[in-house]
Amino acid sequence: MPSKPAILIARKVFPDIVDHLRAHFEVEMNDTDDVYSPAQLIERLQGKVGALTTGSERIDAAVAAACPQLRVVANIAVGFNNFDVPALSAAGVLATNTPDVLTETTADFGFALIMATARRLTESEHFLRAGQWNRWSLDMFAGAEVHGSTLGILGMGRIGQAIARRGALGFGMKVIYHNRSRLDAATEAECRARYVDKATLLREADHLILVLPYSAENHHAIGAAEIAQMKPTATLVNIARGGIVDDAALAQALRERRIAAAGLDVFEGEPKVHPDLLTVPNVVLTPHIASATMQTRRAMAKLAADNVIAYLTEGRPITPLNAEIIGKGARE
Ligand code: GLV
What is the whole-number distance in angstroms between the Cα of residue 299 and the centre of ligand 1? Predict the structure, then answer.
């Protein structure tokens, strides 16, 4: 019997997903779950036709050139800034991501961070745990209203729209958004969201949430100059990607109370966190868990696996990022 083609799963995934892949492929796994160095990744990818990756693995022209048998890389994430998609297309490597399956879960978490940030959830818990609560007082940890306030959304893809619906329908918020391209009127109406320019968004939002993809163009889309345009009572939440916010500038603005508070699930250079963010009290910090429910993380891993199977067995990936290469330069 001819041996099966080989693939790499670059990080630990659920055992039944591994079994699902083993029905089609020889599977090499990363049992330690430690992130491979670029050199280790290239070494592990030798002889592999496919790989399941996460945001921790950079896949670019150098990897494609060093791994000539590699035909498909399937990110277990909707974001794919760890892929150089144009370089992969040029090399004939198909790339896929995991849209849709995480939209509602990630929007839930975005809203959790808005609530936690506005209502000072972790700050007040730290106070209580530290034994500092010896009497109740009228303005103790008084935060910002969420219901009825103005929700600003920067980046209005699937997740931004799901957050808009929660804000408008669940909390009676006035929703404004800015996006590279404006939504069609029907979608705007369904989300009850009004398109504004970025300056208006910064100026008018009581709670600003970032849900845009990371790109060179979006690097530090929120820095000192943008924070200066926000209300001093405003809050800022980032569930998009590290690097979209200038974390050093944000830490300084939080310390100087130039905005009220921030909630961050993603960081520049994560898992490292800017040390100044660890010492300011008015920030809620979580370790990149916006899509982390078991159901959703399983669905993401399953979709990534199904993309590899569907492409390598039938030539038809489910959620490709560069489908245009299929039959026109894709590696065979
Ligand atoms: C998580 O950050 C993702 O992109 O899915």
Answer: 13
Report how far ligand 1's centroid is from the alpha carbon of 79 (Å): 5
Cα–Cα distance measured from residue 145 to residue 230, given in angstroms and rounded to the nearest whole number: 16
Q: Does domain 6-100+294-325 have CATH number 3.40.50.720?
A: yes
Annotated active-site residue 258? The verdict is no
What is the reported pTM? 0.97
Residues with CB under 6 A from ligand 1: 77-79, 102, 291
Residue 1 has pLDDT above 60, yes or no: no
Of 90, 72, 66, the residue nearest 7 (C-alpha): 72
Domain boundaries, the chain: 6-100+294-325, 103-285
The per-residue pLDDT for range 139-166, each reduced to its tens digit, is 999 999 999 999 999 999 999 999 999 9
Assess contact for 236 and 230: CB atoms under 8 A.
yes
268 labelled catalytic: no
Torsional sign, CA 82, 311, 319, 112: negative
CATH topology for 103-285?
Rossmann fold (3.40.50)
Can you tell me the distance from the alpha carbon of 242 to that of 330, in angstroms, rounded to the nearest whole number? 31
Alpha carbon nearest to ligand 1 atom 1, residue:
77
Distances (CA, A) of 32 to 12, 35, 36: 8, 9, 10
Residue 241 designated active-site? yes
Ligand 1 geometric centre to CA of 3 (Å): 34
